Amino acid sequence: MQKVKAWAKKLKQQVLVLYLAYKHDRVPRYAKLFTACVVAYALSPIDLIPDFIPVLGYVDDVILVPLGIMMALKMIPREVIAECEIKAEELMKKDKPKNWVAGTVIILIWVAVLLWILLNFPFGMGFAGAV
């Protein structure tokens, strides 16, 4: 159980490193875009595969998120990662970092996607196509 906790803590720290790297000037634009997607997905309460589906539900948490983190870290210059790792460690020691703006943006994106789906695909509930 201790190994699982250590792995989860390392994963959280890596997501924080990616978030800090996303805001760094020396990170290429394509890496920023990919990094933003990985961080948003890792922090999002909505999964590609819902957790209630046996076995497959945790595939994204155990495979997709770490794979995305690994790929994003390879796109970012090593010096930037080292710099962001130091900042992330400091933030993790002080207090758990909270970014209400990022959280709000993620929630608004999911709400917009849900509204778009509801308004564009009639589900027999009278949401769309009533004209």
Automatic annotation (TrEMBL):
Keywords: Membrane, Transmembrane, Transmembrane helix. Its main location: membrane. Pfam families: DUF1232. Residues 31-67 form the DUF1232 domain. This is YkvA family protein. It is found in: Endomembrane system. The keyword Iron does not apply. It is a multi-pass membrane protein. Signal peptide: none annotated. The chain crosses the membrane at residues 100-119. InterPro entries: DUF1232 (IPR010652).
